[in-house]
Design brief:
It is a single chain. With 301 residues, this protein is α/β, with parallel strands linked by helices. It is built from 10 helices and 15 strands. Helix 6 packs antiparallel against helix 7 (217-241). The longest helix has 25 residues, at 217-241. It is globular and about 65 Å long. The N and C termini lie far apart (60 Å).
Length: 301
């Protein structure tokens, strides 16, 4: 077996965990190979080429549109590709990513262009879209249920094999970052509901895109609880900074690093993500009637 591949467990010999070359650096991600299905391709070009030399891959499931999950997809030219319909557009036309990261198609910043060029992204045709509750037949022994978990992106999906109590949880939480909802299509309210939805599943073994392979059910639960706790902490910090008189905008608060701290990939290419994430909290607070609009900003109700 290749050195970056391991069986998920002794019982699940057909479930092969593929550790991304730089899983914790957010330039690659972890993946899963079951029978002829590969979930996410962003393990690195080197690893993908070795996979293709040693395994027959016919179907690819992309959990969402982010660059670290779809890079290298062009190497699998004879495969059919699946993703949620909400994330189809930026996968089929990578320039849509500029808009989803908060910039215009016509004039994205050079930093973002250079950052995305590192991934050598190519437009990929999606042959099948998936939706919540769909069943993907792996073989006679296993079926994957699609769990639509919007929030990180609009079409972010997880996958659950009920009989083995296994889940592929993609970016439902990320080490060092926590829940990330810094895209235009992200939703904090949806994210919290998605976390609760996943937490209600009976999961004994899970693969996260950046945490890795987790075989302890309590640890899996802790990672999910931690995500909700981080969001709650962000809520509290933001509310403590707001006033009943002086209005604040998300842009004014975005230089305080309240959401994501010291993550090179975001500082380099996605400076708007902090502002967008704060705005998502404001949307939540408005719905909860905790704040109200004043001038161009927000004050406490």
């Amino acid at each position: 077996m290749l050195p970056f591949i391991e069986q998920v467990s002794d019982e699940l010999k057909e479930f092969l965990f593929i550790r991304g070359k730089e899983e914790s650096a957010y330039y690659t991600c972890n993946a899963l190979l079951i029978n002829d299905i590969l979930i996410d391709t962003g393990v690195s070009t080197t690893y993908l080429n070795k996979l293709l030399e040693n395994y027959q891959i016919k179907r690819v499931i992309l959990t969402h549109w982010h660059e670290d999950h779809i890079s290298g997809s062009n190497l699998l030219q004879n495969c059919s590709f699946m993703c949620h319909s909400n994330d189809k557009s930026p996968i089929e036309d990578n320039k849509v990513m500029y808009k989803l990261y908060g910039y215009s198609h016509q004039n994205p910043p050079n930093e973002l262009i250079r950052y995305l060029e590192k991934y050598n992204l190519k437009n990929i045709v999606i042959s099948q879209t998936i939706t919540d509750g769909d069943i993907i037949t792996v073989n006679d022994n296993y079926n994957l249920r699609v769990i639509h978990t919007p929030g990180h992106t609009s079409g972010h999906c997880c996958f659950y094999e009920k009989d083995s109590k296994f889940a592929f949880l993609s970016d439902i939480n990320m080490p060092g970052v926590g829940p990330w909802y810094g895209g235009i299509d992200s939703s904090l309210l949806d994210y919290e509901e998605s976390l609760k939805k996943i937490k209600n599943l009976d999961i004994r073994i899970a693969v996260f895109s950046h945490y890795g392979l987790i075989t302890d059910a309590n640890e899996i639960s802790d990672i999910l609880i931690d995500a909700l706790t981080i969001i709650q902490g962000r809520d509290e910090v933001l509310l403590s900074l707001l006033s009943e008189k002086k209005a604040f905008t998300a842009k004014e608060l975005s230089n305080k690093q309240l959401m994501v701290k010291n993550i090179e990939v975001y500082e380099e290419a996605l400076p708007l993500s902090e502002e967008i994430m704060i705005e998502k909290h404001f949307e939540k607070f408005l719905k909860q009637q905790l704040i109200e609009r004043k001038d161009d900003g927000y004050i406490l109700s």
